[in-house]
Design a protein that fits this description.
Layout: E1 10-12, E2 21-30, E3 37-44, E4 46-51, E5 54-59, E6 67-74, E7 83-92, E8 106-113, E9 116-120, E10 130-133, E11 152-156, E12 173-174, E13 176-178, E14 183-186, E15 196-197, E16 201-210, H1 220-223, H2 241-246, E17 248-259, E18 266-268, E19 272-292, E20 296-303, E21 321-326, E22 329-334, E23 339-350, E24 353-362, E25 372-375, H3 378-394, H4 413-425, H5 429-439, H6 469-484, H7 487-505, E26 535-536, H8 537-553, H9 557-573, E27 583-587, E28 590-593, H10 599-607, H11 617-626, H12 644-657, H13 661-678, H14 700-709, E29 711-715, E30 720-723, E31 733-739, E32 742-751, E33 754-760, E34 766-769
Parallel strand pairs: 6-14, 11-21, 30-34
Antiparallel strand pairs: 1-13, 2-7, 2-10, 3-6, 3-8, 4-5, 4-7, 8-9, 10-12, 15-24, 16-17, 16-19, 18-24, 19-22, 19-23, 19-24, 20-21, 20-23, 25-31, 26-27, 27-28, 29-30, 31-32, 32-33
Amino acid sequence: MIKLNIAQPIWPKGRSTEKNLLIGFGADIMKEDSAPTILHITASSIYRIYLNGNYIGFGPARSAHDYYRIDEYNLTDKLNNSHNRLAIEVVGYNVNSYYTLDQESFLLAEVTCGNKILNATGLKGNEGFEALELPYKIQKVQRYSFQRPFVEAYQYNSNDVLWRTGQFFPNRILSCEILEEKNLLERGVSYPALENTYPRYIIQKEHIRIKEVTNLWKDRSLLHIGETLKGYTEDELSLHLSDDIQKIETIETDSIYTKYPMDQGLNLLENTAVMYAFENNITGFIGLKIKCSNKTKLYIVFDEVLSQGDIDFKRLECVNVIQYGLEEGEYQLETIEPYTMKYMKIIVVEGDCFIESVYIRELKNPDTNLAFFHCNNDAINQIYQAGLHTFMQNAVDIYMDCPSRERAGWLCDSYFTSRVEYDLTGNSKIENNFIENYLLPETFDYLPKGMLPMCYPADHYDSVFIPNWSLWFVLELYEFYQRTNDKQMVERSKVRVYQLFEYFQKYENEYGLLEQLDGWIFVEWSKCNDFIQDVNYPTNMLYSYALKVAGKLYQDNGLIEKSENIKKVILEQGFNGNFFIDNAIRLNGRLELTNNITETTQYYAFYFDIATIEKNYELWNILLQNFGPLNKVGTYSYIHPSNAFIGNYLRLELLSKFYERDRVIKEIEGYFLGMAVKVGTLWEHNEPYASCNHGFASHVIRCIHRDAVGISRIDKIGKVIEMHPVNQLFTSLDLILPIDGEQLKIHISSDEKGVHREVIVPKGYELLVKNISI
């Protein structure tokens, strides 16, 4: 725990649980010459900072219930010599979500210069922070999605943001109260890169009209507001954003496909629209610099892909729409929330405006800029870059499934993404926070005792959980320990791990297998999820493996023995002589095997050491020769195919494990090149009908490092870099990875004498090359 000097958490009196309330906090700072001027800050739910009208930062890094991570900003070089205005906007959501927690709103901030406290929340007068009502953000709006809080809609006049630079608005000042002391933690992760990126192209201009629509799409996040999904009901809304945008119809399109002009703007008249395209799928804050000659109303709609040549704001089951109402004047607009898109459309439905510039202030991980990869295969380069973009956007403060619809920290996803963090950045800072967040709460409300949330930090008021997803926490903890040797984190996790296994004990049947689990049983996004009851063999394979690695972590032979017993039973029951089946049904007191067989279950069997290549070579050969992106299933069409998450990734892992490394690279191209070309990030599914930017998918980077370059293991504890020979698929290749403040450099080239590989390891490291044969 850490503490600030004297700052106390504050919020306008009696409003700390009010939903979707935007409050501005301002302080005047005098520049001191004696020492650096530092701002310490945290808040609930989110904040953004301006200094003298210039954007400074966004936060905080997320943590568990009742814990808050403190950010530090060095303001010294950004201060003027005389008067400086620090302006902080805080949105308190006070609704449950998968993204931010339903906790009372507050700001805690302190500005210091050496040992001198210049400003602090809780102080009065010039040394404190004044709180202002900010009327321009419309409060009573619908949720953005089931998983995230509210959409953004604004009503501005040109003077509304002058408070950020010091203009006084006495009629807006609010009296604040001091709230309960907060548990504070260090941020623990790097601050995000927040650079502006501009569109690559202007695709088309459109003429639109407003039409009547009888069957309006209404999402569950609009219709099901109540105790388990908090928000504003339809009757309470000040506007119906998703309804209004569905009434806009394009009646004429002018294709102009031209490069985005950086030095000239664009006039938009009433009932016209313009569509932009960014180079890649991108995540960040939408910004517009705009002039309005009269009262104007406009919408911004966006998505990752085009649907039948247009943007479908609801494709991802969220409301990808921002609304601005603007009086005459000039504006620098920017959303307070990040969004994900490759395509953006600005639609003017009232008035007219001159759009001077459009940008996204990217929100991404900054630590990957030390890594570099390039080879002579353009397809692999594209896939690698797509994996890199995917990781950067999904690994800012925690590992996220996607940076769009949910921004949620899911287990299992994190198992794969954590490997990429270690490879690309040389550390596991985000993973440390991710695991710690699961350990901090005493209990998880609304979940059974011992069960871990499927994603966290999140509020699960509907009591939904994925029991088998909790087992991936154990697997990740095991690999985290191998990466970091953090014995303290392993010991802190012990109670959680054993409580989890205690939870599962009551579902063990007479054979020791888990049966009729409560909750949402999830194996992967395929037919696997239809074959989950009563005994789901993939889940039991995962259970066996989790018991084994926990036994290793805690030197518990009882867990290892239990793991082996489950493995034995699965082999006896779940293997029909040719394939592993997905499930067995309890009928009249007896377990009856089904004929349900999926591709992914076979991968589960091999990945979790139920099957081995020595004993199940025939099965493996069938998988090798008849499945994957390079094969046509043909004879085995009755076996339900895998989807991206997680079957395709398990397949790639097994190909590598069984020394089919050339094939890994070829199948990566088959699985992912289309994704990389289409949007520049990698997808949740094989097809673009859900998220096209999913964190786990960055795991292709690990595959390329391992199976194209030949890196078996980077051991920062033992100071060893282990490599294995690979059939050289590339005539040239360069890889640079950061390790302990230095670099691992691998250079591959070829000439008439053959292929040459040069490896430079960091100081103090040993290079081991393994000669492997099968």
